[in-house]
Amino acid sequence: MVYAKECDTLLNICETQLLYKDTAIVALNNEISAKDSVIVAEKNIVLNQEAIIEGKDIEIDGLKKALRKESLKLKWTKVGWAATGVVSTGLIAVLLLK
């Protein structure tokens, strides 16, 4: 009878340990799932950042082209004003010399 009670006690201890083990496994699986979710979220953030960088690179290229175009336009405007000044000065000189 004593041996049976000892076996019963050991069985109860083993069942309790199995329950704790199962609880720990569930908790660790939940932790793994949470960390996997964090990894997926971080990958999405990286993808979004790469898309933003790509968009900004395209925007920078467009702005560089626009800047070159405006710079060329300004250069030709200066040349035009200089030519207008030369022609005007020439006309004034011709009119004054007559």
Tell me what you see in this structure.
Helices cover 98% and strands 0% of the residues. The protein has one helix and no strands. The longest helix is centred in the middle third of the chain and has 96 residues, at 2-97. The chain has 98 residues and is mainly α. It has one helix spanning 2-97.
Topology:
Layout: H1 2-97
SSE series:
H
Rounded Rg: 42 Å
* Low-pLDDT runs: none
> Gap between N and C termini, in Å?
143 Å
| Largest β-sheet summary | none
On the 0 to 100 scale, the average pLDDT is 94
Helix percentage range: over 70%
Shape: rod-shaped
The SS-based structural class is mainly alpha
Number of strand segments: 0
**Tally of alpha and pi helices:** 1
Measured by DSSP, the beta-strand proportion falls in: under 5%
Kindly report the oligomeric state of this protein.
single chain
Summarize this structure as a short list of keywords or feature phrases.
98 residues; mainly alpha; 98% helix; rod-shaped
Short description:
With 98 residues, the chain is mainly alpha-helical. The chain has one helix at residues 2-97.
